[in-house]
Design goal:
By secondary structure, the protein is α/β, with parallel strands linked by helices. Helix content is 37%, strand content 22%. Strand 4, helix 5 and strand 5 form a beta-alpha-beta unit. It is globular, with a radius of gyration of 17 Å.
Amino acid sequence: MNQDGEADAVVQRYARRAAADPRYSLLRPDVWQTVQERQRAMLRLFVRVGLTDLAALRLLEVGCGSGGNLLELLRSGFVPEHLAGVELISERAAIARHVLPAATAVHVGDALALELPQASQDIVYVSTVFSSLLDDAYQRRLAARMWRWVRPGGGILWYDFTYDNPRNPDVRGVPIARIRALFPAGSFDTRRVTLAPPIARRVAPLHPALYTLFNLVPALRTHLLCWIGKP
């Protein structure tokens, strides 16, 4: 159910990537520090925007992959029956279904084809998805669909990188101006996070503290963590 082929193109782009790239193993010090930094920033964001009763919140992750982010959210205090994910790539969705609790719904296919009631979610979470969408019109349609799913008082939880990767033509950075254009009615709380991976890969193996030291420089952070509140 994809009108312009962008969903099929995304599947092809992911197929070109290594199935198990060792650069993203949690055994690497740069990776676990990146993950833990994002987790801490997200928990602080929840408190800052008043989302303290996590067990009461309904959350859908668009592009849930193999379920890793949803597992993190479970450990943070969300409950299985209030979590759901949708994943385009069937192999990844199958892994998510295997590792997540049965009460957590895992939908397979294009998120644009997913039928959910309007204003049914407290949070729609999207992590490093829009940087893999190279069609502007598809981005706009997906953003509009996500916005309809969010209830008033809820929001979009966004994590993605802002700079292009010259070595990877299958992705492009999503700067804050583009995010604001995709969600023009939203109120934004943004934080720049995540030390640039090429730097993190060099310094973290020398000593874990170097990740924190280099990450003190805002210009070296490549990702945005955003709360896009819906009035």
